[in-house]
Amino acid sequence: MAELPLRTRSVEAGVDLIPQGSTPSECCFVIEGWMCRHVLTANGGRQIVAFHIPGDLPDRDSLHLPHLDHAISSISAGRVAFIPHEAVLALLSARPNLAVAFWRDAVVDAGVFRQWLTSVGRRTAKQRVAHLICEMFTRMEALGLADSDHFSFPVTQAQLGDALGLSSVHINRTLQELKAEGVISWRASIVTIHDEAQLRGIGDFDPGYLELKAMAQPH
Q1: Domains in the chain, ordered, with CATH?
Q2: Which of the four pLDDT bands, split at 50, 70 and 90, describes residue 20?
């Protein structure tokens, strides 16, 4: 993958990298920073459907779909690489093991979507926030980008609301409740988890759907 032709780009927070409905000819690879996928509605509403961190390919679907039904934007300042589709497809054709890895990544991505859908449809506000914090901490920890009890989560309360289907007021109230219970603290985009077991219990979080052990095993 590292030998593929690519162009890199540094981005500030809040930049639309790939608009909804576009027809990209390149894949976007996150090198540094946080990105998100989101869907814009006709009335201007926004639903964030995924957060992406270093190592992710947010628009992997564009390899096979003519139009993106969502947009990709930067949550924080960072750096991304754009790789031509034809180069990625040629590599996958030549290296079946990488094709399997891409397919496995897509399957895990679907599992994450199912959890997010369950949160919006069935979990309380407190459970939604706790589950998402647990998920992102677990993913960052697997990359070596989190310490034993804290990690950088550079999202605003409005962005959390767009991801969890809650208003900013409801998000603020829920975070204050978790802080008052001594479960977490959140200062300057750093989330500190004071009781991970309790946070997992509140969010009904089981990391099995992330398949981190399977992803780490050689194939």
Answers
A1: 7-94 (2.60.120.10), 108-216 (1.10.10.10)
A2: very high
